[in-house]
Amino acid sequence: MFELNGKVAVVTGCDTGLGQGMALALARAGCDVVGINVVPADATGALIAEAGRRFRDIRADLRTAKAAVLIGQVVASFGRIDILVNNAGIIRRADALDFSEQDWDEVIEVNLKAVFFLAQAAARQFIAQKSPGRIINIASLLSFQGGIRVPSYTAAKSGVMGLTRLLANEWAKHGITVNAIAPGYMDTNNTEALRADPVRSAEILGRIPLARWGLPADLAGPIVFLASPASAYVTGHTLAVDGGWLGR
Ligand code: NAD
Question: Cα(108)–Cα(130) distance, rounded to whole angstroms?
């Protein structure tokens, strides 16, 4: 039920952090992986090779790259695509009163616009292949909550949860499922500033029922579940993987 032998998975932003963890988990479940990365993902490639699977790294900046071209490169590499993980994301922190247009635009471009157009290009390919595809978007606790000092990030991640539902509704008839994972507070570059602030860091940790920051490996089970036949009747859902944060 959880086996993905012979599938081709695309993971954006898999040179580090959560994307690297999910790319490796998908490879260990049987996938060949294509990364779409703004910087080289050699460490991820080495880990996937150790798992006995193929890795191709496509270099692109998701602020400007054309999704149809990227998906075309994936198909040219491995002949098909079965799973798209829209993981790449950035965050900019400033008070809403001072927030700049550049910090608004760049976050929306990577975290929301690229998510939609990559999903569209992948879905067109799934339909052309006549195969049931899987799309998994990486949302956030700020899909559910407002947060503070991250207005473009909250707008984008709230948008990702809504878009996940809309695409699930429209594409169910093609056998495509669209779900999202909302990671909690995870130990990656994204949260470096929070973890470096002793006050914010203690506040956050004190509120997590499982009493630790999450790790990339904590997404391994959830991503394989949502990519595999085990989740065949799950679509439009955003799964929080947050150590219990939202229940608090
Ligand atoms: P990270 O900063 O380590 O990784 C972000 C990835 O996105 C990197 O691979 C980076 O190269 C890539 N990226 C950034 N800008 C890009 C661009 N213009 N084009 C292509 N790739 C680009 O952080 P992470 O925590 O691993 O983040 C992964 C995802 O998880 C993001 O969408 C993030 O918003 C989300 N998330 C993280 C947390 C957390 O606590 N770390 C919580 C909720 C959601």
Answer: 31
Catalytic residues: 153
Q: 57-81: per-residue pLDDT in tens?
A: 999 999 999 999 999 999 999 999 9
- Ligand 1 near 13 CB (within 6 A): yes
Strands (E), the chain: 8-12, 32-37, 55-59, 83-86, 134-138, 177-183, 238-241
Residue 128 belongs to a domain: yes
Total residue length of the chain: 248
Domain that holds residue 148: 8-241
Q: 193 in ligand 1 pocket by Cβ < 6 Å?
A: no
In a domain? residue 33: yes
Q: Reduced to 3 states, what is the DSSP secondary structure of residue 58?
A: strand
The verdict on the CB of residue 133 being under 6 Å from ligand 1 is: no
**Nearest protein Cα to ligand 1, atom 44:** 140
Question: Which residue is closest in CA terms to ligand 1's atom 10?
Answer: 13
Q: What is the pLDDT of residues 191-243, one digit of tens each?
A: 999 999 999 999 999 999 999 999 999 999 999 999 999 999 999 999 999 99
